[in-house]
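Bench notes, bay 3.
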Amino acid sequence: MSFDEWFALSRQVALVIFFLAFVGILFWAYRPKNKDRFEQEARAIIDDHDP
């Protein structure tokens, strides 16, 4: 394989890896298990009464 072929293959592999990471992060963020935790953290910012 030439350098150009290796370079094209590495770009394709990197695209697949980043896509899978993106889908994994979306899955983690939208899991029902995390909903309560995220809501608590969102309320903590609003409920903080420090001047």
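Next record in the batch:
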Amino acid sequence: MKKFLKIFIFLEVILFAYIFNTSIYNIYEKNNIATENLKGYVLEETSPEILDKFYTIFTEEYSQNKLELINNTLTSTDKSVYDLYCYPLNEFTQKQPISSSILFQYHELQKEDFLDSVGVFYTDLPANAIKEIASQLSVAINNFENDAIPYSMVLELNLLNFVILFIVLQIIYCIYTSYSLKKIGIKKSMGFSTIHILKEQITSVIKYFAVICLVLLFLLNLYYALTNRYDFSYLATSVLFFIGVLAINILCVLITSILIKFVSLEAMIKNKTLNSGTNIVVQAIKIIFSVIIAITIISLLNQGNSFRQSQQAVLDYKYLDGYYTANGFNSSEYDYALANTDILEKYSEQTLEMYNHNHSLLCDFRTDGGLQTSRPYYEQQLVIANRNYLNEFSNIQLSGKPLGEDIFSEPTVLVPHKYKNDENSISEYIKQEYFRLMNYNQFYGCLLYTSDAADEWMGRC
């Protein structure tokens, strides 16, 4: 039966290692995303000017220190993706987490990234330096404590599984003890006490468990070290976890002392270890054990999937807290631009320059699907493209010749001969779309173009 015990403990350690990696340590990693030794802070005011000034002060006066931003990217998969913006990037150890359901993506922290943040950052600056920066900004910088995922979630979502698992452990130890009763009876006939026999059993369990556990942890940590995922916290927490598992195993062995008390020396001499009633109970326990094993496997699979989904839902909700209408979108700067025509025009000119002078391509089209099938074809098939795209990916010709640069100098509608019958309708629709796009911000009280410009339009066939 010693082989049975060794195999059982080996499978048990494998099972609990899986449970530890996918639940407890998975939560630990998600609660400790920030780089070690970096403390979290949050700016009380997050206007673009304050964020810009903070980044400038940090990079100019504290460039020898570290600065980190953390964004949780929402994905359609079960994998949690974290974008880590680090300054300076080469000072950070770019390792991946142990949990396979988590992915770290490292980026160099630029000013634009900090401007798009919500004012939460992690740094190794001393407290007096933080106070000095806050004084220069005239803005309070408070300690930031992230809302941690409670470890109790593991117990809440898997309580039934753990109860069943404990029952399975207890049944296995009872079966192991029942098959060792003849040996136990001999020891009792030699004068060994129940406590001494239990001590021997506990010693065997501890020895097998410790050896198997240490070998497994060594192999796991070696693998994580070779794949750039090793973390000492994993070794420390896993050792504590398996000490707890070992304590549960010892408790199960102690409970089996009830069986040892049923051993009769008279029955042992007659080549029997248990009376008929106890033997029936043992056989019934074996049957129950088989049923419980099947139920446990099915339940663990179902609950494991439910746990991952619940955990991801908590993360998604947590990382949406404090953000604007989109991850990384600073509405203050947008509202400020809408309220100042000069700034809005400057942004428009910069966007135009980006597409026209940086060899950038723009092609946008409608994807209304079947909702617009009743509308005319020229409304359903509208495509907006910039000059670079037209020059490189189109063969539009005017009177058999490629388009010249002068064609882009003023608003012009070119209608192919194929659609000559609809020329007026197409021209009118294009005009309306043109002015609608040019005046997209008119609802904010800022009208940049007027319909008087329609006189500049020309229709050519």
